[in-house]
Amino acid sequence: MTTQTDTAIEPPSEPRLLLRVIAVIGIALSLFQLWAAGLQPLGLFYQRPIHLGFILVLCFLIYPAFGRGRPRGALGWAIDGPLILAGVVAGAWVPVNIDIIANQVFPRQIDVWMGVLTILVVLEGARRAVGLGMTIIGAVFIAYAFAGNRGALNFLADWMPGILNHRGYSLDRVASQMTLGAEGIFGIPLGVAATFVFIFVLFGAFLEVTGAGKFFIDLAYAATGRQRGGPAKAAVIASAGMGSISGSAIANVVTTGAFTIPLMKKLGYRPAQAGGIEAAASTGGQIMPPLMGAGAFLMSEFTRVPYVDIVLVSIFPAILYFGVVYLLVHIAAVKQGMTGLPAADLPRTRTVLAEGWHFLLPLVALVALLVAGYSPMRVGFYAILSIIAAASARALWTFLASGPSVAGFAALCGRGVALTLDALELGARNAVAVSMACAVAGIIVGVVGLTGLGLKFSAMMIAFSGGNLVLALILVIIASLILGMGLPVTAAYIVLIILVGPALTEEFGIPLLIAHLLVFWYSQDSNVTPPVALAGFAGAAIAGSKPMETSVQAWKYAKGLYLIPVFMVFNEEIILGGPLPLVLWSGAIAILGLVAFAAVLEAFLWRPMQLWMRLALLPGIVGLFWPDIRVEIAGAALVAALLALNWAQARRERSLVPAAT
Q1: Where are the domains of the chain?
Q2: End-to-end CA distance of the chain, in Å?
Q3: pLDDT digits (tens, 9 = 90+) for 335-345
Q4: pTM of the model
Q5: Dihedral sign (CA 302, 308, 311, 313)
């Protein structure tokens, strides 16, 4: 559910009629999705193409040919009109002709040309909604499918290294692979987007329009505002709460950062520091259960591990990540001598809960239904009904308490209908970019399956790393960073796991679920890692700081994004389970190692840390990550002794201050 564009705000220059058409189509798409999720489940060759047809139409309406904010004009409509019609045809073709397609041995020529049309409109839609990088990558993969000795572009075979060479495929075969089966555009990525992801994006939209975002932010301020660096700590907590249900790091930054970044600056954080803290915290929302963006749904489909199990094993790593960000924020506040905000400037916890406790009910219902074993799509459907019921009950209670009247009841009903329609439209808009990305990801997955590229890439990875797991992990980080410059997180995860997953599991022996978690966590790094740090840039825009400086700060505060997956690999019991003493030990040394790393990074814990102590901590931290219990014990002893020394020095200094005065 991560996108690189903000689909929730329409440029004011768009004609009113067009805005209404977009609203009607968006509402229709959301109602179709709700009907399929809760009332009448559809087969994949109905659900996925119809979803794609709606998305394509919305995409070409929302994103004009010459860019958003520019007048479309007659030429623009001459381009977009046929594309909208092509989107309708692409979405309807397979469902209408499913009986013929299912019973034929070789595709009809018209099916081939419809496949070509679908590929072209998907690539163009992705260019508009996601960015040119996604389209280029999709086009390169299609060209690769043709680029063999027997392929439609056989002259390209001479340009490919031997290990990447393959037989090549014809236009008929590639078009059929992409659009007439479940291994191309209508494959798992779009399937997940058309079912689980959309329904939870819609759930997030209902929470947003009913005011849940403000509730989470106020609750975070009430809990942490009086502490040192309170607004920064509130940013961490609010982003964890909001990010766990919104699915977009950039949306998190824009939503919570509008409140937290100005207050952080007011408290004394540098603008770049404030923007970086918010970007790092918002990125963590993508790895925080229960939703984890689209990651948990995709992992469940790829690994065949129940969704609720993925959610449960992801809780501790996510807490570790936010714990590291929180600790770094606290250290920065102590180093700079900050204080908290006055109590008069903060909301009271009791008041916030009294006004917004009903927002917690849908989350409780969501978790309870997941634990009860309901499918994620059905859980999302009931969660949406629960937020509608909770918000309606709260509004009705307020109405009755304030003196009911016929006119007031009519106004209440009108506002409820308006908010519901707004949420239905917003959910559809917010799903456009992720669905387009998943459609192109389906092209990539289809080509990889057709050509065997995944195994070839794995062989290259093994050759480059020389069989060394640490070098292989570094290669994964580099690949994820490069992919993240042009792809949303969801698409980067899909591409990367298809390419490197076989090597990680089969050659390096990493368990399947941990390999997927590793790649998913590393796919987040483009949000906070220069030179292209999308969440960092959004934070910089709000903070009024330099984008690159803000991105460096975001990268610094998000270090857990790199370290925690490595700990999963070398201490797999924290994910897969094991004897209780071993699990507790692994959890304890993970916390110890991350605290020590934060202290080394900031040269401060309870007091400033001398250079020799920081250097001595490094081998101890490495020891904590070492897959040998004896080395871990030695590392833990060294780290614990040095941190205890730092605490003792700070305590001694505090005891001397009264004597000196």
Answers
A1: 16-189, 578-661
A2: 58
A3: 877 777 777 77
A4: 0.74
A5: negative
